[in-house]
């Protein structure tokens, strides 16, 4: 079981600035340490001691969700104090082959665990990160298949900047960079919570998209995120009749709807995207579809191992190519130190740097601080440019106006 509280804002600077925490969080500070050992160092730093989203307060437990599923014995797991998924009796990591010579049953068990983790992360987003769940479409009736996303309380009304998180494509949902990563490497590497917490601290607003929540089970007319009985869980995995969710039938449609109805109408003048994998392609699609709006409102984009293709998606639009080159940077899985330039023979668009790891699944967590350092610098450069270009009223200028 993990215990959470938020450290008061007055203490955030004291927590984040000491050199010890800086070394733990920045992989490039540890060039001589093997990658596997660095994983352990990062996890220890973020799941023990003073951390902004891990201490006493909220008692959330994956085990409580599992106990209501009928899989109490087969899934005897919970997250420990380091955010690692461990067996309650043996303290071992997750074992897929629970049943001997029965791949189908093992796969069903794995699917149930995935559903439990999805619901658990949703609880973390609402109770630990204090995000609000927003259902879409906004005008849908109770009977219509709705989707949802998460955002901070004042994301739309505050003039501070907004960070939008756009995940890769897969079975995982909002708040996750990867479900397999959560199971094998823990909450720090697999969830978006470290990004959410840093976005709230440094930028004020955050929106967590849910681009993979595209289908609903027509037969039961409800989400399959928890199972009340073992029989129900097994039945649901085999007999679902899926139909597309309204306004969220694909990652592209989901993102465009949230942009049109929420992000574009927000009070924030500065919006940034952090897009992983297929999420980069989805953002580029949004840029092409809403070119003028996106170019005016988005000040920067951080791609992580992005699947976008400017030449193909932008159809040789010189404005989009110029904007990508000027306002975007991509972190790619690579054996070079974090932040070092990486050449690409495949894509020629924006500056590309190393994520500090060769493992695709760990790239987001490894380049966390490097990304926010980049976003902070680009936002500062934009605001500085806007200030220098704005007219400054002086006595002489006021006199000229009066004379005219």
UniProtKB/TrEMBL annotation:
<protein>
    <recommendedName>
        <fullName>Arb2 domain-containing protein</fullName>
    </recommendedName>
</protein>
<dbReference type="GO" id="GO:0035197">
    <property type="term" value="F:siRNA binding"/>
</dbReference>
<dbReference type="InterPro" id="IPR048263">
    <property type="entry name" value="Arb2"/>
</dbReference>
<dbReference type="InterPro" id="IPR053858">
    <property type="entry name" value="Arb2_dom"/>
</dbReference>
<feature type="domain" description="Arb2">
    <location>
        <begin position="73"/>
        <end position="338"/>
    </location>
</feature>
<dbReference type="GO" id="GO:0031048">
    <property type="term" value="P:regulatory ncRNA-mediated heterochromatin formation"/>
</dbReference>
<dbReference type="GO" id="GO:0005634">
    <property type="term" value="C:nucleus"/>
</dbReference>
<dbReference type="Pfam" id="PF22749">
    <property type="entry name" value="Arb2"/>
</dbReference>
